[in-house]
Amino acid sequence: MAIHVEGLVAIAFFYLLILAVGIWAAWKNKHSGEAEGTDRSETIMVGGRDIGLFVGGFTMTATWVGGGYINGTAEYVYLPSFGLAWAQAPFGYALSLVVGGLFFAKPMRSRGYVTMLDPFQQLYGKRMGGLLFIPALMGEIFWSAAILSALGATLSVIVDINIKMSVVLSALIAIFYTLVGGLYSVAYTDVVQLFCIFIGLWISVPFALTNPAVADITVTVVKEVYQAPWKGSISPNDTWVWIDNFCLLMLGGIPWQVYFQRVLSASSATYAQVLSFLAAFGCLVMAVPSVLIGAIGASTDWNQTSYGAIPPKDKDEADMILPIVLQHLCPPFVSFFGLGAVSAAVMSSADSSILSASSMFARNIYQLAFRQSASDREIVWVMRITIFVFGGLATVMALVTGTVYGLWYLSSDLVYVIIFPQLLSVLFIKGTNTYGSVAAYLFGMVLRIGGGEPYLKLPPFIYYPGWSLDHRVDRLTGVMEEVVVQRFPFKTVSMLASFLGNVGVSYLAKYLFESGKLSHKYDFLDAVVSQHSAEIMDKTTLVAKGNNIGLSEMAPVKPRLSVTLAAAFTRRDTLPSEMVEEEEEEESSPDSSRHDEE
Q1: d(Cα 149, Cα 129) in Å, to the nearest integer?
Q2: CB environment 250-274: b (16+ within 10 A), e (fewer)
């Protein structure tokens, strides 16, 4: 197959468009936040908290609507063993945004956090925050790697060029404008990304629908023509699996830094909620062309097309059904425009995950856990370095790891069973502590990994009720293998066990230490007995009965350290005026001055 000049031109045009928008956004907002005294590092992470409704709505929608979303939806609708009934992502992620907006956006934004991990370190301490960073980081990196891997497959359909070179180039472009502009570049390129997907796909759909090789999709939805009806069905044996997966999307889609990055960048808590609801609607709208393309693929007589007589599903290319439909069922100019737009959009999807991972590392690991005295300039450079490192890591994984999707599936499950119940506890359950958090972490991880992961060939060591043996052909080796299929909703059960474990162990530890049944010297995590532990990150804005307790009520804490940590977690403009006055008095007092000299 020769190189398609039109395809290269289309890709180059959309790539340059997104790169130009990213650089323009960085230049336009280079002085943002300076007038309010906002740190440069915070501006990079949350865009100065002034993202408006228009850009915010698009970037919040782009939290999930990217390359994996549109390709995956089309794939599941196309596959005869799944169909529309199993294409859960559109409704699952839309409901995820609704639930996030109703219950999580307001408390997170109103408390002035900068990353998703802030409340964990505030309540459970820096070491627990570091542990929770691991599944969060894995999710972001593997998601970026999966996106870049899918991009290579998409580009291989358009033009016969070196896939590795195209993946590296795509990653470098995304890394470059993210380095330059931070969240502003990510947000503005998201606007272009969604326009590219929407226009590119909707231009292609009418041509694909009217192709002579395509049967009427209103007929094939319920009647078998070239394959099973594309509406799909859910067998009684798979009902609990379907529910488990849907809960994973709906609730497991909340505790991601890519989501809270947008929430925390909103200009107010109410705006954050509105953006979540707008994005939920956007998720459903953006899924429509993907569903139609999957239905078109299921209604096509491939023998009449340039693709060949063997359908994509029989050539193990179902995951590329969207670019295949655009390539073989549309005129060349439409095909290249659509594929170029989709490829650029896929490339743009990786940027927010890379920024999210670097934001959590720079703030929650480097600054708050190791160098609380780090300057703003130092944090900015740490972010820039980690953007490059994490972006490079995702690129390498996309190129050399054949199981990148399996890694992402497992890490997203861990985000669901570990981070979501802890987020529930830290925001809504009073009295949880580090002991409960550690127990919940272990419960969730063991119960989830114990169920195994077929994509990684990870055998289970916990056989849940209803398990069965299935025989599948390995995609890489072609060898028939036995796979254990878990039909029990063990992911959701693991999440619930993690949540109950956190609450139960926290209250038990609190009772044992406070009643004297366990000596105070055994409180080695300083989570119950100690009132002024250096491990607990923030002691300046403890929430009790809805009021902020000032440092004046907690004598043993050093004044200068307390002011630093207050700035670390809480913006001064969110503190009550009397508390700000107290802090300023402490800073200007003779005692404070003598302490500084010491």
Answers
A1: 30
A2: bbbbbbbbbbbbbbbbbbebebbbb
Q: What is the pTM of this model?
A: 0.84
540-555 per-position pLDDT tens digit: 433 333 333 333 333 3
- Could you tell me which residues are beta bridge partners of residue 473? 480
Q: Mean pLDDT over all residues of the chain?
A: 83
116 within 8 A of 105, measured Cβ to Cβ: no
**Whether the Cβ atoms of residue 71 and residue 150 lie closer than 8 Å to each other:** yes
pLDDT, one tens digit per residue, over 198-221 is 888 999 999 999 999 999 999 999
Q: CA end-to-end span of the chain, whole Å?
A: 74
Closest listed residue to residue 120, CA positions, set 572, 576, 569 = 569
The closest alpha carbon to 491, from 249, 140, 255, belongs to 249
- Nearest Cα residue to 582 out of 544, 561, 553, 539: 553
Q: CB neighbours of 544 closer than 8 A, spacing ≥ 6?
A: none
**Rg (alpha carbons) of the chain, rounded to whole number:** 25
**Range list of H helices, 114-182:** 118-124, 126-158, 163-181
pLDDT at 36: 60
Give the relative orientation of helices 67-78 and 332-360 as an angle to the nearest 10 degrees.
120
| The pair of three-digit structure tokens given for residue 265, joined into one six-digit string | 């960048």
> What is the pLDDT at residue 488?
95
How far CA 210 is from CA of 56, 117, 160, in Å, comes to: 36, 50, 27
